Amino acid sequence: MDKLDPERRSQNMARVHGKNTEPEMRVRRIAHRIGLRFRLHRADLPGRPDLVFPRYRLAVFVHGCFWHRHTDCSRASMPATRREFWKAKFEANVARDRTQQAALLALGWTVLVLWECELKDESSIEKRLRAAIDRLCPSN
Ligand SMILES: [Zn+2]
Fold first, then answer.
1. Over the stretch 60-82, which tens digit does the pLDDT of each residue have?
2. Which residues surround ligand 1, an ion (CB under 5 A)?
3. How many whole angstroms separate alpha carbon 31 and alpha carbon 33?
4. pLDDT digits (tens, 9 = 90+) for 12-26
5. d(CA 108, CA 96)
6. How many Å lie between the centroid of ligand 1 and the Cα of residue 67?
């Protein structure tokens, strides 16, 4: 299914900032429990979604609250120094996320964003993943 051999795949993933993080591993465990086939970091899709359920055209992003600016989340604090730098960086991150998600939607994908702070509750994440999949029809 996955066209890259394991060695190249791990090199690819190591290059990408923040991949294979603990929050991501949690979501993978949950996805395994659900028992549906998924793929990781598909490079041919906008934003390289962290998980993809190809049969349902469902793309899942596991976002760190700080870097991706989770609204009203205490983890999305603003550093006390170099505020202009951080502000510009955060705005660019958020704009990139928005662009990538819009591109996925335009390609007929459904996008689900899971925030790092929500992953403490694995059963609720499992419910949300199942609900998203239940709403979608298998594409073949
Ligand atoms: Zn958060």
1. 999 999 999 999 999 999 999 99
2. 65, 70, 73, 75, 115, 117
3. 5
4. 444 445 667 888 889
5. 19
6. 10
Other Cβ atoms within 10 Å of 90 Cβ, number: 17
Q: Using an 8 Å Cβ cutoff, are 109 and 39 in contact?
A: no
Please state which CATH number belongs to domain 6-125: 3.40.960.10
How many angstroms separate the alpha carbon of residue 126 from the centre of ligand 1? 17
Distance 108 CA to ligand 1 centre (A): 27
138 CA to centre of ligand 1 in angstroms = 31
| Ligand 1 midpoint to CA 75 (Å) | 6
